[in-house]
Request: fold
Amino acid sequence: MKSWLTTTDHKRIGLLYFWTAFGFFLMGGTEALVIRAQLVRPEGIGVSAETFNQLFTMHGTTMVFLALMPLSAAFFNFIIPLQIGARDVAFPRLNAFSYWVFLLGGLLLNASFIAGPLFGADRLSVAPDAGWFAYANLTSRQFSAGPNVDFWLLGLQILGIASLAAGFNFIVTILNMRAPGMRMLRLPPFTWMTLITQFLVITAFPVITVALVLLMFDRFFGTHFFVPAGGGDPILWQHLFWMFGHPEVYILILPAMGIISEVLPTFSRKPLFGYTVVVYSGVVIAFLGWSVWAHHMFSTGLGPIADSVFAGTTMLIAIPTGVKIFNWIGTLWGGQLRFTTALLFAVGFIAMFIIGGLSGVTHAAAPADLQQTDTYYVVAHIHYVLFGGTILGLFAGIYYWWPKMTGRMLSETLGRWHFWLTVIGMNLAFFPMHLSGLFGMPRRIYTYSADLGVTRFNQLSTAGAFIIGIATLIFFWNLLSTRRRPINAPHNPWGGATLEWAIPSPPPVYNFTVIPTVASRLPLWQTERHAPMEPLPERPPAPIHVPEGSWWPMITALGLPLMAIGALSRLLPIVLVGAAVVIVGIYRWAYEPFEM
Amino acid sequence: MTHSRPPSGAHAHRTSMGLDSRKMAFWAFIGSECLLFGSLISTYLVYKGRSLVGPYPHEILNIPFTSFSTFDLLMSSLAMVLALAAVQRGDMKQGKLWLLVTALLGLVFLGGQFWEFSHFVREGLGLTTNLFGSTFYVLTGTHGAHVTVGVIWLLTLWVQALRGKLGPGQAITVEITGLYWHFVDVVWIVIFTVVYLIQ
Amino acid sequence: MPLLLAVVLVVLTACGGPFPQSALAPRSDFSTSLDHLFTNIFWWAVVVFLIVEALLLYAIARYRARPGAAAPKPVHGHTALEIGWTLAPALILVFIAVPTMRTIFETAGNAPEGALRVEVIGHQWWWEYRYPTLGIGAANELHVPVRTPVQLEMTSADVIHSFWVPRLAGKRDLIQGRINRIEFSADSTGEYRGQCAEFCGASHANMRLRVVVQLDTAFQAWVDRQRAGPTAPAKGSPAELGQQVFRRSACIGCHTIVGISQGKVGPELTHVGSRATIAGALFPNTTDMLRRWIMNAPSLKPGALMPPQGLSAADLDAVVAYLQSLK
Reply:
């Protein structure tokens, strides 16, 4: 147990991220099921408006920040050092720190569900309830008097620190710790997409940090950054939030695109088609992703010139995105396709993401978007790209890398059930939403008029959501039941080409007995110019020193939620104690002897 | 002069880009901080001229005084450069001196900020008085917090040097400290220009 | 397969209707141009979708691993293909971008001469309308003449709301401190439904509205009635009793009835009896609903700012009769 608390091993941290994120994914999914149950009929099932508003806020916040990002981080952690031929990340303790901060931030956010009585309110009344993007001036103290929005803005600031720390860590790891011969254009596509994602993280998160700090000042200290009565402009919040928010959606999708760029070649027995184009299109998407943010604001009255500019840039970004899809199909084309569950999910990604991408193009047309934005049509778009895209991609990654991470194979039979039920469920859940939106159903409503004619679509969506729930339980069962299997997965069960498949499953603590020298993009495969890499020796030639772990990342991390609790309870001494914990933790961390 | 700390991080090993990992990480951090200050400066600019009530910038900002603060910070960057050069060539006597001078000049800057803020408050410009007050204090306050962290960092190094635990082997740490300090100085130049000079 | 299933189910369901709040059944110049633009892009999207899915389905069917088959050719890419499938989408986007830009400028909200100006002020959770050139006000139900340009100048008294009547106009937000404009000309008479489309707190779901598009004569008649003072209740009628109850109750603190009270917190009630709905177009304007609404509004509409009125049953009936008489 102590070894898990003090671990700085990227593989253990990756597993910690995985299970924690999966737990939050189940929470977010449960929130979704309650939402869908309430919406199955116009008059609902008895969920109050206040509870509903907390549910959809927490569903969005949890899925984006506590499930999808950390599930991707599980793979960044476990797989990246293996793919680049390193023994660990550049800053192992900082890596552990990121995990603990994530866990604590997520716990703080979710503690709001039961913290009501501490604030003199009912249970289930103080969770964040202003939507996952919390528009001002609804979030001002005047219109959101309780601690709900405070939980949200404090929790997200904490989570931002976790993401930023990981961003710096992985950028340096990928740039600076590659094995000899691993040139940038020999990096596996997942590593490339991760690198690009981390640049987006370290540039986008400061912007939301500023937005959250300004909101915090409004709510705690009486400033008027977003309060019209004091001269503030609620639209400033939207600009700041979406300047973060749009790069954020690429942060959410690029890693999954990286995963399927690994899975497709392995199970087609062919290299990734257009590797260079796939890599460069990722870079282009990252740059263009900064130019489109106000397409979330077409209904705010930006004016025709701004509307036109953002419509144009948004359409432009469809091009590098579309190019990837063609390259993935090109990878499958002419291959020898083995339909493992991982490949099924990767193909599912392509099939579903294109739908979300195309509905995105309809959103880009600003005037048309005036009918679509803030309705179930955009909820459909979001879920096709984030569920049909990111989540299916993450599932592909789990089936693909589970043997490497645990030494056990997942059941392919259960995997097929998982896949088919998920795809059926998601289409049943989200496709009708295009129509319920166009037929006049706005988003974020706990009830709707029976006269609208959208009841049938809502019934289909609810049925689909519960099918997804069943599929996810089957998947959970699959994960849990592998724990009873023997640890006997081979080095390379799928015949993959990249370095992680050259070492045992799971890898020894030092990863590689000898750091390999890399001569091609596909080290383990026979290519036109290179024979496969020689197998690595069974044992290391000399003992390899492995760091012992450290308490300081976790202890330092504890200071952050303490500061937040101090703020929530308006007790400055607690804030100061939390700050002291952070400062002492940093000093002890800095002076601790720690050798890689 | 012995190495008191074993080499930590990846710098003891070869790196793919030939740059110490800690330095690379720090440059990434500075990039990130540019976005942070950029967002705060943008907020200041967006709300420029939109305060509903006074005091207004032209009534209250004291350019001569702030020019002195700016000069002080610039001199502190010079002291930092001298400190690093001394540590790199092993002259720890000079190294300690210039580290201390940098920290002291930083403290003078902070003292000046504190005096300026108190003066403004007495003149009626508080954090919540108007948009100018809010954006001004949050922007310069964030910068001031960064200077404070820098001063603490410098004094920590100075104490470490006093104990004989800082030498040319730890020059990279001093270099990174210098990077931080110069960055904070550059941010101040931008703030000084945007807030004080261009009104 | 699952997608096909979903599409079929949805299409079958969509053959139902009616859909009174549909964006796909436009009845104004504004909503019609949005619909045309959407339809244009929609068909391009269908074409791209069919091509991509067909390619994908073909690939997974044709290239299944067969036992004993030779290893696949290690193709790394194809420059001409890359150029092709970069330029083709770019070209399609041009066909989408041009009509988009044109429609943006056409629908920017600038009103032609002679447009009817209506100020819209959003409140939590109801709509206030003022007709500055006609000197009248209204709430929740917006009356406009048919085939006449109408310009809505919109702002909010509190948080951000969004005015959305899909058959007549795309939505634009109501933001405190700003004015956003919607300009449209309705094609045909009728009652059009809408609701708030920006999350605005507890009863966002309950902030509904109606637009009543009328022939010029009917509209003018409505305007004249709105301009007139409130109907005086008949002597000795329940409505007269109700007026007295109204005068001495908390009602006067929040509501305006011209000549009786000047409250500005809730909707004006001078002609409330002429409205088809109450409570932010949420309930029909019937005796029963009025009674229940006044008795305990927050129980019907979470967060409603009108507190439960502790009126006796008799007083309640009287007030309801009074309000219904205010046609």
